[in-house]
Design a protein that fits this description.
- By secondary structure, the chain is an alpha/beta fold.
- It has a single domain, classed as 3-Layer(aba) Sandwich (Rossmann fold).
- Helix content is 42%, strand content 19%.
- The protein has five helices and five strands.
- It has a five-stranded parallel beta sheet, with helices on both faces.
- Strand 1, helix 1 and strand 2 form a beta-alpha-beta unit.
- Helix 4 packs across helix 5.
- The chain is elongated.
Length: 154
């Protein structure tokens, strides 16, 4: 089986770099295009609380979230350039499962992370949600161990 388009979820969790490295290795091995997807997850603030908060505070938080996504973009682009891989990075808004599934429908493989019980993240159930929503193969990268041999026979 060959992969020409690989999508990797890039989030704010502690293991995003592990997923990126595994997907870079696969993209290089299969000469595939790599797409990084980072979903901006804005906090849901109830209306009665939002009316009491100054707009500057809400806007500042949104800017911080967007800056985190742009920082992840810079890391992704630098890694892809270093490995000489054709790549694209998408900053998206909305539900993580919906956004990654939409991108995944046009790919050959989705790369997501395995939930780490020591470092819970908002996207811990992403693999299960994508299994039903994307219709594509999913590689779940473990949060421990060595992933340098993914896709290779020993």
């Amino acid at each position: 089986m060959t992969f020409k388009d690989i999508v990797v979820h890039q989030g704010e969790d502690t293991h995003a770099e592990r997923r990126l490295n595994a997907s870079l290795d696969l993209a290089k091995q299969f000469n595939a295009r790599l797409t990084g997807v980072y979903v901006l997850s804005y906090p849901t603030v109830p209306g009665f609380v939002q009316s009491e908060l100054p707009n500057e505070i809400i806007e500042q938080r949104y800017n911080e979230i967007r800056a985190g996504g742009e920082s992840r973009r810079a890391d992704f682009d630098a890694a892809a350039n270093r490995e000489d891989i054709t790549s694209e990075f998408r900053l998206m808004e909305g539900d993580a499962a919906d956004a990654v599934a939409m991108c995944g429908r046009y790919s050959d493989l989705l790369v997501v992370g395995h939930p780490d019980p020591d470092h819970p993240a908002m996207t811990d159930g992403l693999a299960e949600a994508l299994l039903l929503a994307s219709g594509r193969p999913i590689l779940v990268v473990p949060y421990t161990g060595d992933q340098s041999q993914i896709g290779r026979r020993s």
